[in-house]
Amino acid sequence: MMPVVALVGRPNVGKSTLFNRLTRTRDALVADFPGLTRDRKYGQARFNELEYIVVDTGGIDGSEQGIELEMASQSLAAIDEADVVLFMVDARAGLTSADEAIAAHLRRCQKKTLLVANKTDGIDADSAIGEFYQLGLGDIYQIAAAHGRGVLTLLETALAPQLEELSADADGEDDAMADDEDELEFDDAMLEDAMAVIDEVIEEDALPFEDAPIKLAIVGRPNVGKSTLTNRILGEERVVVYDMPGTTRDSVYIPMQRDEQDYVLIDTAGVRRRGKVHEAVEKFSVIKTLKAIEDANVVLLVLDAREGISDQDLSLLGFVLNAGRSIVLAVNKWDGLSQDVRDDIKRELDRRLGFIDFARLHFISALHGSGVGNLFESVKEAYASATKRVNTSMLTRIMQMAQDDHQPPLVRGRRVKLKYAHAGGYNPPRIIVHGNQVKDLPDSYKRYLINYFRRSLQVVGTPIRVEFQEGDNPYAGLKNKLTATQLRKRKRLMKHIKKR
Ligand SMILES: Nc1nc2c(ncn2[C@@H]2O[C@H](COP(=O)(O)OP(=O)(O)OP(=O)(O)O)[C@@H](O)[C@H]2O)c(=O)[nH]1
Ligand SMILES: Nc1nc2c(ncn2[C@@H]2O[C@H](COP(=O)(O)OP(=O)(O)OP(=O)(O)O)[C@@H](O)[C@H]2O)c(=O)[nH]1
């Protein structure tokens, strides 16, 4: 699960500056959901190999009275949902009563909190931050968000447990891949041996997806009709077990069956909590939504026909694609619209959702039930596409055809050469292409190749990841994926190669 880092502090301490620095790292995706909680911003960021979510909680102005109330309405949810809170103070401005009020609240929350003194550039930081120890939050991390100073150390500490977990997972990677192996030359016979091992690995990777229930998250911005749709689906189907959430802000996981297929519905709307205590706080939660997307196999993104496509819809869509999840789009509230209006809406969808033309689009009415049943065909299709097994020879053949149809360009007088391709994982499907000078492949050619794979494999409703590996070593793209048996085989193979 992606950890969540919340930035908390009074206005002007530098939260936005730090947020921007963190989310700028790589593949940043920033979503604004104004009006939900005031000006909270969400971004996806990456530290080394670890992906995490950053939340800028917006300023808490403790100088006004009723800070508790304000925090409740605004930042409480973010703090509650966060794995770690970075409580920022301004080293130049010194300690304020607002800082004290926020600190008091954070101490009560008993959430892992790091005290971060920002703007330590160009001042005598050590003496400036002294007074902040009064806040009773332990160590103080000195940073200058504007210049990046101290930020890496801060992240290392903030995300230490998650980073540790990640490196534990990656143990054995060194075993599986020695550096000098990158330089090895593989001839055809050796490659063939290696491919057999890779196809075995890939077979095994597919097993967990077989006969497993499809985890389907129903996602969308507030008021699009998620609850109505969930009720409609469950109303038609037999609910097998009823899973109650641990906290009010968790999604509800509901097992169900339909046409012999098992599903687990991930319900982000929290329909059954309606009218209960927490309704006033906040039903819609971006973090909950992001976690549901992360945890799903297929995401059903619900749009509102009457509202058109909003930036929030596009942000959610971006998160789904970024997470590599399969997707089905449902345009809800399709009932009672005139033909003219429907035509207008379809034109707008064409225009704004052209970039995701690989996803199925359904027009439904959750209220009346029309179109709801058909969604499941697309969900199954998307899942099947995302977990479709493809062996090395098939992928290499497709890659070769693509290359024959349209050669990679010349770069500095040399032609980029693609040699072979193999699968690297599922949901999303990963295809790893080996070749020479692949780093020089222009994006346009990469897109061409992705589309070629997509058409040839008839992949619908899921993003595809195509990765490029320089050189022949077929293990380079798999790293620690090999099992013990495969490792033995691989070692034998490597010995064999090195002898020659
Ligand atoms: N000298 C210095 N100034 C900084 C640093 N980080 C931020 N600032 C400045 O501090 C001011 C406030 O920064 P923001 O990032 O907008 O602060 P914020 O906490 O997001 O403020 P709100 O959006 O009002 O909550 C800006 O003028 C920044 O340029 C830093 O590391 N050093
Ligand atoms: N006309 C029409 N109205 C709908 C349809 N589906 C939902 N609605 C209405 O839209 C409003 C919002 O529906 P909800 O199901 O509560 O939406 P939600 O996405 O769960 O909202 P949050 O829980 O606030 O995130 C309600 O008034 C529903 O009656 C539909 O298919 N047609």
From TrEMBL:
Q: Would the keyword Transferase turn up in this protein's UniProt record?
A: no
Record's keyword terms, sorted: GTP-binding, Nucleotide-binding, Repeat, Ribosome biogenesis
Q: Which domain of life is it from?
A: Bacteria
Q: Which PROSITE patterns match?
A: G_ENGA (PS51712)
Matches recorded under PANTHER family: GTPASE DER
Q: What is this protein called?
A: GTPase Der
Q: What residues does GTP 2 bind to?
A: 220-227, 267-271, 332-335
Give the quaternary structure.
Associates with the 50S ribosomal subunit.
